[in-house]
């Protein structure tokens, strides 16, 4: 599933091809994604693309005719084709074509993604309850510490709560808690001030590293098969059930927390 770093990589990958360009048309081959694709998208002719940004896991194409909001869902991906083509795959549901012939193609086998239109994203319900961006200065140790007082919820569930901080997916939550030496099921209200600072610093490092690694795959955006490289990271605990902990040789354990499979080392994490 595309996580925040992949979405950020997508923003950086497609921006050089699209910003400053004028839309010729948006071809919608399939309207039934997670939500129905907005009708307004077929009326975007002559809109100028001014900037492309990200909020949580939404990619936002800002234009002179409103904003296009894209979510990659479970299996969505964006690719750039340097010229128009009649060669269309089964899961290539949407093409955004610029006047100079660049194609932004959306592929999504499981169709849990979204393409929506808005004239003002801040008014959209999906954006109103979102917590802080994890890489922003506002998300810091003081914020986590203060926000978690009296909260009797597992620390892992808390950092994956989108109303607290957005985009800390399951892999990144497991890895960050391991590196901060904090047990995922520990109640967040028991974290010390020092641990809150450490955990936030590590979350930022883990996400930044993933984005940096994604940067090395940017060339993949223009490969004919179009899949951006979702990058394999060196993982400490995630996906390693029963294997040896790299730190202490203890077996990595799993447990369901907040309906998500959670990987940890009960020797290293307290
Ligand atoms: Zn260990």
From TrEMBL:
Domain Formamidopyrimidine-DNA glycosylase catalytic, first and last residues per copy: 2-113
Highest rank taxon of the organism: Bacteria
Cofactor(s) this protein requires: Zn(2+)
Entry keyword Protein biosynthesis: no
FPG-type domain span: 236-270
Active site (record annotation): 2-3, 57, 260
Keywords: DNA damage, DNA repair, DNA-binding, Glycosidase, Hydrolase, Lyase, Metal-binding, Multifunctional enzyme, Zinc, Zinc-finger
Gene Ontology biological process terms in this record: base-excision repair
Pfam families, alphabetized: Fapy_DNA_glyco, H2TH, zf-FPG_IleRS
GO molecular function, one term: class I DNA-(apurinic or apyrimidinic site) endonuclease activity
Reactions performed catalytically: Hydrolysis of DNA containing ring-opened 7-methylguanine residues, releasing 2,6-diamino-4-hydroxy-5-(N-methyl)formamidopyrimidine; 2'-deoxyribonucleotide-(2'-deoxyribose 5'-phosphate)-2'-deoxyribonucleotide-DNA = a 3'-end 2'-deoxyribonucleotide-(2,3-dehydro-2,3-deoxyribose 5'-phosphate)-DNA + a 5'-end 5'-phospho-2'-deoxyribonucleoside-DNA + H(+)
Note accompanying the cofactor annotation: Binds 1 zinc ion per subunit.
Positions that bind DNA: 91, 110, 151
Assigned EC number: 3.2.2.23, 4.2.99.18
Function field: Involved in base excision repair of DNA damaged by oxidation or by mutagenic agents. Acts as DNA glycosylase that recognizes and removes damaged bases. Has a preference for oxidized purines, such as 7,8-dihydro-8-oxoguanine (8-oxoG). Has AP (apurinic/apyrimidinic) lyase activity and introduces nicks in the DNA strand. Cleaves the DNA backbone by beta-delta elimination to generate a single-strand break at the site of the removed base with both 3'- and 5'-phosphates.
Subunit structure and binding partners: Monomer.
Family label: Belongs to the FPG family.
Name recorded for this polypeptide: Formamidopyrimidine-DNA glycosylase
UniProt organism field: Phocoenobacter uteri
């Amino acid at each position: 599933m595309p996580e925040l770093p992949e979405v950020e990589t997508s923003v950086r990958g497609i921006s050089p091809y699209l910003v400053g360009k004028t839309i010729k048309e948006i071809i919608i081959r399939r309207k039934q994604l997670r939500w129905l694709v907005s009708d307004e998208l077929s009326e975007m002719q002559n809109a100028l693309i001014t900037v492309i940004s990200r909020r949580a896991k939404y990619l936002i194409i800002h234009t002179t005719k409103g904003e296009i909001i894209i979510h990659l869902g479970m299996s969505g991906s964006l690719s750039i084709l340097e010229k128009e083509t009649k060669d269309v795959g089964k899961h290539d549901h949407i093409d955004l074509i610029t006047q100079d012939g660049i194609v932004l193609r959306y592929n999504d086998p499981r169709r849990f993604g979204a393409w929506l239109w808005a004239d003002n994203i801040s008014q959209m319900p999906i954006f109103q309850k979102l917590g802080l961006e994890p890489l922003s200065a506002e998300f810091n140790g003081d914020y986590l510490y203060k926000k978690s007082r009296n909260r009797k919820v597992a620390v892992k569930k808390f950092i994956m709560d989108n109303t607290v901080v957005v985009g800390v997916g399951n892999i990144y939550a497991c890895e960050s808690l391991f590196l901060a030496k904090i047990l995922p099921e520990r109640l967040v209200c028991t974290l010390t001030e020092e641990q809150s600072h450490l955990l936030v610093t590590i979350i930022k490092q883990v996400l930044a590293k993933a984005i940096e690694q994604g940067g090395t795959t940017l060339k993949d955006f223009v490969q004919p098969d179009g899949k951006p490289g979702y990058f394999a990271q060196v993982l400490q605990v995630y996906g390693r059930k029963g294997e040896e902990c790299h730190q202490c040789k203890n077996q990595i354990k799993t447990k369901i927390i907040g309906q998500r499979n959670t990987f940890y080392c009960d020797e290293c994490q307290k």
